Amino acid sequence: MQKIKEFYDLHQYPKANQYTSNQKRTNQKIITKILRSANITEKDLMGKRILDIGCGTGEKSIFFAKNGAKEVVSVDFSLGQLSELEKKVKKEKLSNITIEKKDIIKDNLLDLKKFDLIFCLGVLHHTENPYLGFKKISSLLKNDGIIVIGLYHKYSRLRYRIQRFFLRTLISKDPEKIINFLLTSKFTKKFKKAPISTLYDRYAVPYESYHTLKEIKKWFSKNNIKPINNSLKFKKIESLNVLEKKTIFFIGGKRFI
After folding, report:
1. What is the reported pTM?
2. CA distances from residue 35 to 40, 121, 173, 210 in whole angstroms, order as listed
3. For residues 225 and 218, what is the distance between their CA atoms, to the nearest angstrom?
4. Max Cα separation, the chain?
5. What are the DSSP E strand ranges found in the chain?
6. For the chain, which residues make up each domain, given as ranges?
7. CA angle at 60 for the pair 97 and 240, rounded to the nearest 5°
8. Residue 233 near residue 244 (C-beta atoms within 8 A)
9. What digits encode the pLDDT tens for the residues 223-246?
């Protein structure tokens, strides 16, 4: 986890610009799709206490706060990430965001108390024990509360897994050397058009794991959470998702007693 922390201290992600109306619409469209994986909409954020754990640079935290959340608690273990969020909170003059520096796996999370909605998006697959992380954050969910998690899919992530393998085997495990190769090699012209932050996150993160819907449903069952919906196109034959461009899938669930 220390290598992951050091990586994101240096290479903040996501860095989604929201300066133009088009950029704002794109961000809203992405978050709307994530909410749909739990059958909720922006209106369901109103008056809720929301946990955005592994918040990164905080685009989603800002969205929740500006759409009526009573309080958004934004948690990350990277000071580099949180510093970007602090800038956004100050710029937007938001008083309903609380920022906490915590490690999902190592730190006690119980002092954060209970939440109506929990979002953990693109985070657990970068930890050494994704299930333990899920168990800890799901314990913070109120009765009838809703949790949404996003994870790399075992099959739709396959092409990037192969690319990462060759880069880390033939080029280097050093993020800087990987990115330098992608930007300078005559064999990787298509990468030169991608945002630098995306290249770092996609190809140079020191560690990532891969999961299936079947596996995550078992996580939910063990922690008294009933699946609501998910974003996978092929739900019954999961291997077919190897054809999908989106490599991360979202699944929402509701706490039951």
Report:
1. 0.94
2. 5, 11, 35, 22
3. 10
4. 58
5. 49-53, 71-76, 97-101, 115-121, 141-152, 225-230, 248-255
6. 2-155+210-255, 158-204
7. 150
8. yes
9. 999 999 999 999 999 999 999 999
Residue 216, classified by CB atoms within 10 Å of its CB into exposed (0-12), middle (13-18) or buried (19+), is buried
pLDDT digits (tens, 9 = 90+) for 30-70: 999 999 999 999 999 999 999 999 999 999 999 999 999 99
Instruction: Record the tokens describing residue 239, joined without a space.
Output: 């291997």
Tokens of 17: 């610009």
**Phi, psi (5° rounding) for residue 254?**
-125, 135
CA distance to 27, 82, 101, 117, 234, per residue, from 54 (Å): 18, 10, 10, 14, 27
- Given the candidates 3.90.226.10, 3.30.70.270, 3.40.50.150, 3.30.565.10, the CATH classification of the domain at 2-155+210-255 is 3.40.50.150
Q: How far apart are CA 207 and CA 127, in angstroms?
A: 8
| Nearest-angstrom CA–CA distance, 9 and 82 | 9
